[in-house]
Design goal:
Structural class: mainly alpha
Distance between the termini: 26 Å
Order of helices and strands: HH
Largest sheet: none
Length: 123
């Protein structure tokens, strides 16, 4: 292999290794940030759960003064089931939209790569 070709290969390898190191640092930083964010979300979720349980107890006690304890518990259960159903449906719709957007993005990316390859091949 001529020296110029070896020089080109050396430069390409050096650039690839540099990009790999930079990518590794970026991924490590993203993982650390994600870990911190998830910890905060989990702690917030635990606090939210405690608040919901406290509110549930207070509401159930207030309802039990006007209705029987069984009827109060049933009313709250119905309210929670309705909310859960609505949120579940909303989540399904959002996930379906995200999946469609991902498919659209993939299709555009494939088309762009195909056009680029064709342009390079045709000069």
């Amino acid at each position: 292999m001529p020296d110029s070709a070896q020089d080109v290969v050396a430069v390409v390898v050096e650039e690839a290794m540099s990009a790999r190191e930079e990518l590794g640092e970026t991924v490590a930083e993203a993982v650390e940030e994600t870990r911190g964010g998830l910890s905060a979300i989990a702690a917030g979720g635990a606090c939210g759960l405690l608040a919901a349980l406290t509110a549930h107890s207070a509401i159930q006690q207030r309802l039990a003064k006007a209705w029987s304890p069984e009827l109060a518990a049933g009313a709250l259960t119905l309210a929670y089931a309705t909310g859960a159903s609505a949120l579940f449906r909303y989540g399904q719709v959002r996930l379906r939209r995200a999946r469609e957007a991902s498919r659209d993005t993939l299709e555009v990316t494939r088309d762009t790569v195909a056009r680029t390859v064709e342009e390079i091949a045709n000069g």
